[in-house]
Amino acid sequence: MNETITADAVAASHPRPSGATAEGEAARQASAIEMQGLHKRFGRTTVALDGVDLTIEAGEFFTLLGPSGCGKTTLLRILAGLEEADDGRLAIGGRDITEVPPHRRSVNTVFQSYALFPHLSVRENLAFGLKMRGMAAAARNAKVDEIADFIKLGDLVDRRVDQLSGGQRQRIALARALVCEPDVLLLDEPLSALDAGLRSQLQVELLRVQKRLGMTFVFVTHDQQEAMVMSDRIAVLNGGVIQQVGPPREVYERPVNAFVARFMGHDNLYPVTARQGGRLTTALGELAAEEAGEGDLLLIRPETLDLLPGEVAGDNHLPAVVAERLYRGSHAEYRLEIGDTTLQATLNNRGRHLPEVGDRVTVTVAPDDLVTLSE
Amino acid sequence: MAYTGVMPSARSRAMVREARHLLFTVAPGAVWIVIFLVLPGAYLMGVAFMTNGPYGLPQMPLSLESFERLAGFGFLGWSPGNLYTLLRSLWQTAVSTGLVVLVAYPIAYYITTCREKWRPIMLLLVVVPSWTNQVIRTFGWMNLLAPGTPLSGLAESLGLIAPNMGLYPSSFAVTLGLVYNFLPFMVLPLYAAFEKLDTAQVEAAQDLFASPVRAFWHAVFPQTLPGLLAGIVLVAIPAFGMYVIPELLGGGKGMMLGNLVATQFAGGANWPLGAAGAILMLIATFIGLFAMRRIGKRLGGGEEVVI
Amino acid sequence: MRKRTLHRGLTAFWWATLAFLYLPLAVVVLFSFNAANSAASFTGVSLRWYHQLMGNEEILSAFANSLVLAISSSVIALGIGCLIGYGMYRHRHRKLGWLIVLIYLPIVLPDIVFGISEMAFFVQIHRLTGLLQPGLGTMIIAHVTFQIPFVALIVYSRFVGLDPTLFEAAKDLYASPVKRVVHFMLPTIKPALISAFFLSFTLSVDDFVISFFTAGPESATLPIYIWGAIKKGVSPEINAIATLMIGAVAIAAIMSLLFSRRRPA
After folding, report:
1. A113 vs C173: CB contact, 8 Å cut-off?
2. Does B18 map to a domain?
3. Contact A241, A64 (CB under 8 A)
């Protein structure tokens, strides 16, 4: 099927849907989302959101990232109006919509289960939002054709919903939400039900659509790789509290606490037992760090490490033994032992002699690649 | 929309809205059933404890008179008529339920051994006759069992009945009618049980016990027991309260509790006595439902069986 | 070997049971075409009993009563039962045990207890207030009472089978509460509604005991008429009406089944 499309081809051959034209810019400028002190609990004890303050800029691809139960989906549902916050305020484009019901919000959602109406054809599904808003049939049809062209739905439009594959449903669900030209598009783990290959294809497609339209996307996922690929900024949530907000690189390279670091996939975390000026003592030994910060945990990213054969003395040089090597083609992952402590390293396989298991090596790291963070 | 500061009431407003929604959707039907079934039922129970008045209508004072009459105590001392009717109802219910089990068990098993695409059609074939009116079905049996019909002729030549008597009216005809009427009610839950049968267990049992009879008894039968018990409840409860079949096929000697109750109302003879009989049926029903609930926890989902 | 013998025996038993199940109905249908006025011997094919039906005012009015009763009670039950079914679905996370008991009450109560309770109650209300005079009105009330649970359960199970996110998608796509009912809920449960209507219709036409006790002198339905005719002495005419009813109920029941099966995935 035409699951693979290039956005460049789309841009070349199709005009943007009218919501993306210059006249919409002014409205979009104002479409930033502001959340203040959002609280939500379920039942008496389960706290889903515990005071969320967050501002999302217009035209941003913004991701809410966290483990299940962290409150990210609840926050999305409050944006959609499907849940009401117990306390706090929510505004879109400067207009307070805290108490506006979902059908009067210019916000649309792509649901995890896609939620296509089984009693309607694909075309009727696409036109549903426009029809509910009272748009005349002719105008509706024109809009649907326009979006079907833009998302390259082809002959899917004339199928029945139960004849569609998972990937096709996902794209219909996206088109059904986009055709309404909302101020904000919400996406609730829209790719989680798809297999890996299709998933990465659709990630790219989704990102290109967002850039073309310049629409504000709020994306929910538990997959940090997906979040990093797609987002302009990421908010990491845990226990109903925002831990960190920032661009992917900042969240990955400068996590503010151990939770964020671990969630972003970091394992090399070592308690700092002593510090003297820029020199930190950990179970690995003594290391010099340029901007060590005040935190009492040292984070060493595996890809910042280098390995030298044999024992080489020097600053930030640590003697180690290779305990395990996982060859990944483009790179290899090493488990190193320094005394009783292990350290993970990831190195490119660029024409070098790869250290073998059991080899004695020296690990080096640049002082400006070291960060500390709080527990 | 103006922002109103903190909103401690958001939660309670949602709760009020939900409660109003529940009331709006559920109340019409609930009120309907309460007014037109619960109240009449409660009234009937009250009637059972009243005294029989002129034209059979209930009147004060409250008494247990009708229960005494149900047990056979009347103006003329004790007579066994009503007790016989009660016992006959129990007997007929037990016999016909037993026969229904004997027929339904192999049938339900047989359906599960057939190809999957045929099974729904086979079940349908079993159920379809029960969709027609009970009076008509029973009338069909009257035609079949009347004097001079082939079946009666056969029974005569075997010396089972006196010449020119026909097979109905008789207790035999009532039993036959009951078995006919309730067969589908037993086949459906049994079929559900057989379909869920764990064949691995059966094969293991065949290995262990060798004899098919013992394999059946140890591996198959226990697994179908919930379906069997559900079927017994579904058959025995309505059979105990049956009215149409004994009335048409039984004649005077085949009367059951349902006929005793109906007579007290249809003829306007004695409402309190009829109501007392109805209470007996209700007690039987609730015992059955209680049993069903306990079985239902093991079997899971009894409602499709009812439909 | 033994297994095959068992299977052959079961096959024979299956066909014998089918014969047992269909014999009484077949006899009724066969004798409705009998030329002779006899339940014992078939002398030739004739439509005389059907012709006789057409001229019988009593039967025609019983037929009309049956139809009015079945249609009006089914329509009312559809409305009320549909609301309850939706309410049960929407509030399924609450403790609704009392409602479940209430819903199952009409299903589990023995017909005869159901019938005489209503009859006794209606008679007393009528004596006190003059309302609820026995007749088609009281019969419709009684039929709606036993149809509501079936409609509610069918509608409920249709809703339970839906992706709950669909309700949110409808809200999200600008459908107001009224538009959600018209453009989403009703179209989605349409097969269930049709199936529930036909089931209600079948239950109504099928019922004898409850109708019998709540009927008035002018409101005899076909089963009540047949009952009376049987009690007075069998007439071959009954075979003809019965055959027509068997046909009608079979058609309605099959329709109900078709619509309940044809659910989109």
Report:
1. no
2. no
3. no
